[in-house]
Structures are given as structure tokens and as C-alpha cells.
Specification:
Blueprint lengths: L11 H33 L2 H37 L3 H36 L7 H12 L2 H16 L4 H24 L3 H24 L17 H33 L3 H37 L4 H34 L5 H15 L2 H16 L4 H25 L3 H5 L1 H25 L6
Helix pairs in contact: 1-2, 1-6, 1-9, 2-3, 2-4, 2-5, 2-8, 2-9, 3-4, 3-5, 3-8, 4-7, 5-7, 6-7, 8-13, 9-10, 9-11, 9-12, 10-11, 10-12, 12-15, 13-15
């Protein structure tokens, strides 16, 4: 069965939904996994273990952000090549991406395992759970190799318009993860180590599933290990598009680590509450990210096919989707925030901090969505450096300055929570101005293969 999706013709709305909805469902399954994982850990292991996992999220996300950016670079190149119907180029990018995933995966595993105590110390974890945080980070570090491979290889599938099979992989791995959580934590009493082991096994499974697909004879250009090699031109292309996104994502995570470190200074309940807020907010982030990924592939395919008239029509459709989804979900979260947080912990202070963080962020999600749509369009055009510059200033530099100045003036956690919404507003203003001033010039450039 042909699972590719040609987005150079047909209704933009229909195509974005066909491609984006499976991505959204897959990412939501991941969020539901983290949701239930936190409930299981918080209920059967305790608040210390929950806080330990939450405290390590920013560290793990820092590494994930690096190879996610490179995966996006591969996806954009594949989409542009697919739009231009250049199968040879698709095969070359597949081989280079696989070689890159193996090397990068090994580096990330070693760095995370060996430097885990330092990473935990940097985040100023409460001594009450710092040892648990270190243990969890080290256990889950082994799964990062498979996560790197999975991200880079599924970017190939998404580049040719196949978002169905990545959805299947995520559903299977998420269900397996939850089952293993219950077995390791409740049956075998393995505590936080069991939660980490369940994550590693599920990541290994997802990597195996995607390998089976891309190495199948039915695939558009089957992967063969003897053909895996570095092709300098394709590697440079992936780096040119992917590295700015990796830098952008990494700096954002570093700023988040700074904020998390400051939040940790307010105690274990603030750490746990903010962590719960991040997991709930992750559902909205996932929706936004899924639409952004869809618009990136849509734009890249049409840009590769030199159908520039479809760029702005696709952007307008994506923007309408974002506004409807984000406004409705943010409103719901604002009003039921305490009820949601109570699912993770019945501690009054955890509920207070978690609800406050959720309600503050709910006012800014709309700006986050707008920024990601415009960024997705620019990335589809291969202009990843522009979103990088904008987010470096508004999401990174601003947050760092805000934390140091605000906390210096008043030791109030509310000032930490509003750093993100304000930074999202600043990036929205900047990227809208850039896009509408430069889009006509950008579309006059042709893609050649």
C-alpha cells in the first residue's frame, strides 16, 4: 500500500488534516504516556520520585532538541526532493541520516550517563530527590540512542508524506510503556528505576519498528546497511537546515533549565507542581507542534515543486486551525486547572503551584501557536536561521534577563511563571513582521535538484 502523500495538489485543509492528524494523535499518545506515567509514579512511588522525574525533563529535552532539529533538516530536504520527484536524492538523504543517527546516538548516551550527576547539580535539585533524579537520568540515557534513530528515520517517512506509520509506532510503544510501568513499579516494586527501564524498552521497540519499515523492499528506497555512508553535499544540506533549529531548541531548553533551576529553589512542591503543569501544557504544545510539522512538509513539498501560490494559502489554513484549537483548549485548562493537577498529587501545595503555572501559561499559548506556524512555513522554505534568531532573542536572552532581574527584585514564583508567555508574545510580533516583509522575496528563489 502506498502511504506517501503528495501535498502539491488538492485542498490545503484536507492535506494538512490528513498529514497532521496522525502526527497529533501519535504525539498525544506520548503525552498520555507521560500523563499516566506521572500518575503511576506519584501514586505508587511518591512525590520525591515525581519531582525527580520532572526535574530531569529539561536535561533530557536539551539533548532531544539537538537531534530533533537535525531530523527536521532531513525532513525538509526529503519533502523538497519528494516534491521535485527526485528519488535518488531521497535515498542519499536516508543513508546520510542513518549514519548521522548512529554516531549522534552514541555520543548522547555517553554524555548523558557520564555527566548525569553534573546535570542534576546544575538544576539545583532538592537534596531530598537529587539521587533519584541522577538514577533516573542514567537509566533513561540508554534509550536516547534508539530515540535518536527513531526521530531521524521517521523524519524520512514524514518527508514523503507518511505520517500514518509513525502514528502506529507511537501507539504501540506508548501502550507498552504504560504496561511496563505498571509491571515494574507496582508488581516488581522497582520504583523510579522501573519507570526509567520501561521508557528505554519502549524506545527500543519504536526504533525497531521504524527500521523494519524503511528496510522493507516495499519502501520507496529501502535502507541497506552496506550503502550507509556520509555524502558531504547531503550532510551539509541537513546541517544547513537542521543546525539552526537544533541551536534554537537547545538554547530554549537551556533557558528552561534556568527557569526550572529557579523554580527548584522554591522547594519540592514547587518542582512537582511546575512539572505537572509542563506535562499538561505538553498537550497543547503537542497540538501546536503537530500542525507546525504538517505545514513545514506542506510548504517544503510545494516549494520543491515550485508551486509558490500554495505557500500562503497553506499558512492561512494552518493559522485558522491553531487559533480554534488553542483558544478552546487554553480556556478549558484555565477553568479546570486544580482538578487536573489533583490527578497527579493531592498535596495542597503541589496543586497550588501547578494550577498557578497552568493558568499563567494558558494566556500565552495562542502566541506560541502563531510563532510555530510562521516558523514552520519559514523552515519549509529552508529559512531555519530566521526562527533561530528570533527565538534566541525573545525566548532565550529575554528569559535569562527576566529571571535574573525579576527574582532579584522580588522572590515571587509568579514572576518565573510569566517569563514564557511574555517571551512567546515577543516572538510572535517579531516573526510576523519579518514574514510579511520578506515572503515575496523568499518565494522568488527557486529550488534546484
Amino acid at each position: 500500500m502506498n502511504r506517501t502523500l503528495d501535498m502539491t495538489k488538492g485542498s490545503p485543509l484536507k492535506l494538512l488534516l490528513l498529514f497532521g492528524f496522525p502526527i497529533l494523535l501519535g504525539n498525544l499518545f506520548q503525552q498520555f504516556y507521560t500523563f499516566f506515567d506521572s500518575i503511576i509514579v506519584g501514586s505508587f512511588v511518591g512525590d520525591n520520585a515525581l519531582a525527580a522525574i520532572n526535574a530531569t525533563m529539561a536535561i533530557s529535552n536539551l539533548f532531544i532538541s539537538v537531534f530533533s532539529g537535525l531530523a527536521l533538516g532531513a525532513q525538509v530536504m526529503i519533502s523538497q526532493a519528494f516534491g521535485a520527484k527526485n528519488i535518488t536524492k531521497i535515498k542519499n538523504i536516508l543513508n546520510v541520516s542513518t549514519a548521522l543517527s548512529i554516531v549522534l546516538g552514541l555520543v548522547v548516551v555517553l554524555a548523558t550517563y557520564l555527566l548525569a550527576p553534573l546535570f542534576v547539580e546544575i538544576t539545583h535539585c532538592d537534596p531530598a530527590f537529587s539521587s533519584e533524579a541522577t538514577l533516573y537520568l542514567r537509566v533513561t540515557s540508554f534509550g536516547l540512542f534508539f530515540l535518536v534513530f527513531y526521530n531521524l528515520e521517521t523524519s524520512i517517512l514524514r518527508g514523503i508524506g507518511d505520517s500514518i506509520r509513525p502514528l502506529f509506532f507511537l501507539i504501540v510503544s506508548s501502550v507498552v510503556n504504560i504496561i511496563l510501568d505498571l509491571v515494574f513499579i507496582i508488581v516488581f516494586k522497582m520504583g523510579i528505576e522501573g519507570a526509567g527501564l520501561a521508557t528505554v524498552i519502549s524506545q527500543m521497540l519504536s526504533a525497531y519498528l521504524v527500521y523494519k519499515v524503511i528496510s522493507s523492499e516495499k519502501f520507496i528506497c529501502p535502507l541497506r546497511f552496506k550503502e550507509i555512508r556520509i555524502i558531504l553535499k547531503e550532510l551539509q544540506g541537513i546541517f544547513k537546515i537542521g543546525i539552526p533549529t537544533s541551536i534554537q531548541n537547545s538554547l530554549i531548553q537551556l533557558s528552561n533549565i534556568l527557569i526550572q533551576s529557579s523554580i527548584n529553589g522554591f522547594g519540592i512542591y514547587a518542582t512537582a507542581g511546575a512539572g505537572v503543569s509542563n506535562r499538561i501544557g505538553g498537550f497543547i504544545n503537542t497540538t501546536i507542534f503537530s500542525i507546525a510539522m504538517a505545514i513545514t512538509s506542506f510548504i517544503a513539498q510545494n516549494y520543491g515543486a515550485q508551486k509558490n501560490s500554495r505557500v500562503n494559502s497553506g499558512r492561512r489554513v494552518a493559522m485558522k486551525l491553531i487559533l480554534v484549537i488553542v483558544i478552546s483548549s487554553s480556556s478549558l485548562i484555565y477553568f479546570i486547572a486544580p482538578t487536573i493537577v489533583n490527578l497527579f498529587s493531592n498535596n495542597a501545595e503541589v496543586i497550588y503551584y501547578g494550577s498557578l503555572s497552568l493558568r499563567v501559561n494558558s494566556f500565552g499559548f495562542i502566541f506560541l501557536g502563531i510563532t510555530h506556524v510562521y516558523s514552520g512555513v519559514l523552515r519549509g522554505l529552508g529559512k531555519t536561521e530566521i526562527p533561530m534568531y528570533i527565538t534566541m532573542i525573545s525566548w532565550c536572552l529575554f528569559r535569562v534577563l527576566w529571571v535574573f532581574i525579576a527574582i532579584g527584585l522580588d522572590h515571587d514564583i509568579f514572576l518565573l511563571f510569566i517569563a514564557r508567555p511574555i517571551s512567546w508574545l515577543l516572538s510572535t510580533i517579531a516573526i510576523i513582521i519579518y514574514y510579511h516583509r520578506n515572503i515575496n522575496h523568499l518565494l522568488r528563489k527557486n529550488v534546484s535538484y
